[in-house]
C-alpha cells in the first residue's frame, strides 16, 4: 500500500453509467478512490487527459471461448485476452467446451494455474453440466468458484456433451438453486434438430421448445436460468412474458446475431456459420429495438474462433471471433439508431458493463464507482475506421467484420489502474487474475 495515488484522470465524459462531464477520477492501489469536480490535493504517479473521450467501466464479455486447454491452435489466453484489451474488454468469462471440457471441480484450479501469467485481462469460468457430473457439482462447486454452470441442449462441432432431458435438467436446477448458481443454457432442443428435414436456419421451433422448457424449469425450481444467444422474436417474446411473471429467467444476445442474417450467410458462406444460426432481418431489428428499450439487458460476443482452414473444411465448425469487435460493433449500430452520443454511451456502459457484471455476480467491476476496480476503457466515439486483419489479436487471425467501417475506437484500456493497451499497442505485463464472485 503506497500513500501516493497511482494516478489521476481528468477531462472527458465518464459513463458511470450515468454521464459525468469533466470530473477527476483518482486511482489508488488499483481501485477508484476519488470521483469529483475538485482537483484533489494529493501526490500521484501519473495523470491522463481524457478530453474528447468517453470513459467506460472496463467492459465485461461474459461469453467467450478461449479454447484453453486443448484447442490452442485456434485461440489461447495470450492472444484472446489481447483481443479483449484492444476491444476495451477488461473481464471475460470463458466457456467450458474445451478439450477436455471443464467438467470436474479440480480442473478449475488447474485452469487458473495454466492461464495465469498469459492473461492480459481478468477472467472467470463457466462450468460444464454433463449427463454424468451432477454429483460432483453437488459436492464441490460453489457460487464463489464459477460464474455459472452451462449446459448445451443441442450438440454441434465444438459441443459434444448434450443434455436435454427435462427431468435431469430439473434436478440440476434444484441443486443449483440451493447453491445460488445460475444455469446458463445453449437453448436449442436437440430432438427437434436431429433428423429434422427443416434447414437449420429455419428451425426456429428447436429454439422455442428449449426456451419453453427452461421457463417451466425456472418457474418450478426457482433456479436462475440464463438463456444464451437468443436469436428469434418468438424466444424473446416468451422470455419477456416470463420475466414479467417474475420467473427467474434472463437472456443475452450476441453481436453476430445483431450484425448478420441468413442472407449474409448465403453470400459469405461458412465463415458465418453459427449456432444458433443467423436469422432474419426482422429478428435483428427486433433485438436492436429491445436493446434500446432496455428489454434486453446485455450483449456478449460469443467469441468462438476457428482457423480459416477449419471454417473452409468439409465439416465447418460453428462460431466466429468477436471479442475485439464487441464494443465498436454495438456502438456503431446503436449510434446509427439513436443519433445521440450521450445516450448511446450510457447504454454501452449498462449493456457491456454494469448489467453483465451484476448478472454474473462479479465483484468490484462493471461500474465507475468508489471502491471499484479501476478497470477503464477510453473510447474516441467520433473516430471512423475500417477494420483490417492487421489490427486483430485473436490467434485465428480473421474477423467477420473485415473491411467494414466502425464509428468509435478504443484508444486506451486500463486494468486495475494499469494501462494494458494504448493507441494500437499492448503495453505492460499479462497481469490478469481470476475475478471474485459475490
Ligand atoms: Zn458460445
UniProtKB/TrEMBL annotation:
Keywords noted in UniProt: Hydrolase, Metal-binding
Cofactors (names): Zn(2+)
InterPro entries with a match to the protein in the record: Amidohydro-rel, DHOase/Allantoinase_Hydrolase, Dihydroorotase_CS, Metal-dep_hydrolase_composite, Metal_Hydrolase
Residue ranges of domain Amidohydrolase-related in the record: 55-419
One Gene Ontology molecular-function label: allantoinase activity
Pfam families named among the record's database cross-references: Amidohydro_1 (PF01979)
GO CC annotations on file: cytoplasm
Function, as annotated: Catalyzes the reversible cyclization of carbamoyl aspartate to dihydroorotate.
Family of this protein: Belongs to the metallo-dependent hydrolases superfamily. DHOase family. Class I DHOase subfamily.
This protein's name: Dihydroorotase
Organism of provenance: Marininema halotolerans
